[in-house]
């Protein structure tokens, strides 16, 4: 099954940044005419890291600097959330600190910040964070095997450790499924499901042992659709994209085979390198029944941004000569996608 280009391809605009783009996220729109994006940037010349809010203007597309915050270390994970009258930007760092920035809902200017210092939550780098919809609660995971929950108030925060494997398990990514449930991914294509009503450890586990090659892979990104919280979408090494359904826990649904099922021509090969990020694509209208997986979007180390739908040929949106490190779909305008390119640039796509 081949990867095909969309017959009516997206409008693509590439915007040089002259700094390395570690992460990109859309901010919830302030009005139909005021839209903003958040960039986590790293300047290799000065060894400086920052969180930057840019004003987005279409036709032609442009990103104009609006406000910024200097990070004490390079950003490892970036999330945004609208909560009450504030926009929350959460950023973790490779030094192990966690920061929450609050921007004004009127003009998107940064107003305040609260932080967890280095080595309070994790020993060393924080791999991934995720913010819970409907409340400022953040889950953090890392290679040290710790899982933490951080609750953010108006001017303070509290945190507690949910689990500590003492390094026996390494976590690389996390995603909320409900106010009490979340999933984590890690090495060996493993996935864990957590329920705060049942403390002590994960309530369900999945190990990528359906093929010998899966035991050496890494899950880099996961996503859970709010209408189908029982299914976890996971992307990782060797171009692999699969779904874990809690109703059939040891039978993964492979959407992109990578190097895991080379002899199975029914499973498409979208990328042969790392899948850095995966999100459910809310803008694609699926022809499948409710029993089939919803369409997903991925970006990869070999420069592919594509839509993958179960039982259909993958659709290529963007092919770059460098890695596409990250992307974000605008929840309020799902036809707009922003990507961070390895060659110090941002690409903005508007799907037709």
Automatic annotation (TrEMBL):
Cellular component terms (Gene Ontology): nuclear pore outer ring
Keyword terms: Nucleus, Repeat, WD repeat
Keyword field contains Nucleus: yes
Superkingdom classification of source: Eukaryota
Localization (cell): Nucleus
Keyword Lipid metabolism set for record: no
PANTHER family named among the record's database cross-references: NUCLEOPORIN NUP43
Protein name in the entry: Nuclear pore complex protein NUP43
Originating species: Acacia crassicarpa (northern wattle)
């Amino acid at each position: 099954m081949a990867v095909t280009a969309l017959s009516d391809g997206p409008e693509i605009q590439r915007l040089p940044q002259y700094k390395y783009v570690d992460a990109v996220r859309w901010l919830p729109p302030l009005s139909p005419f005021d839209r903003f994006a958040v960039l986590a940037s790293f300047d290799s010349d000065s060894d400086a890291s920052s969180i930057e809010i840019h004003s987005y203007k279409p036709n032609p597309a442009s990103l104009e600097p609006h406000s910024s915050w200097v990070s004490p270390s390079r950003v490892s994970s970036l999330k945004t959330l609208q909560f009450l009258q504030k926009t929350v930007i959460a950023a973790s760092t490779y030094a192990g600190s966690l920061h929450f920035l609050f921007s004004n809902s009127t003009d998107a200017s940064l107003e305040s910040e609260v932080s967890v210092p280095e080595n309070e939550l994790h020993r060393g780098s924080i791999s991934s964070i995720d913010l819970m919809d409907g409340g400022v609660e953040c889950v953090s995971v890392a290679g040290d095997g710790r899982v933490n929950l951080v609750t953010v108030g108006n001017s303070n925060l509290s945190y507690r450790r949910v689990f500590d494997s003492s390094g026996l398990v390494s976590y690389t990514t996390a995603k909320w499924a409900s106010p009490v449930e979340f999933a984590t991914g890690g090495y060996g294509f493993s996935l864990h499901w957590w329920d705060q009503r049942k403390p002590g450890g994960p309530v369900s586990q999945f190990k990528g042992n359906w093929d010998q090659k899966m035991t050496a892979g890494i899950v880099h990104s996961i996503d859970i659709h709010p209408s189908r919280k029982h299914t976890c979408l996971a992307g990782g090494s060797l171009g692999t994209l699969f779904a874990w359904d809690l109703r059939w826990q040891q039978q993964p649904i492979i959407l992109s085979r990578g190097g895991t099922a080379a002899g199975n021509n029914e499973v498409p090969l979208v990328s042969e390198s790392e899948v850095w990020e995966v999100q459910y694509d809310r803008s694609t209208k699926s022809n499948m029944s409710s029993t089939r997986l919803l369409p997903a979007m991925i970006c990869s180390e070999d420069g592919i941004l594509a839509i993958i739908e179960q039982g259909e040929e993958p659709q290529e949106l963007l092919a770059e000569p460098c890695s596409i490190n990250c992307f974000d779909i605008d929840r309020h305008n799902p036809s707009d996608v922003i990507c961070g390119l390895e060659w110090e640039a941002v690409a903005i796509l508007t799907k037709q």
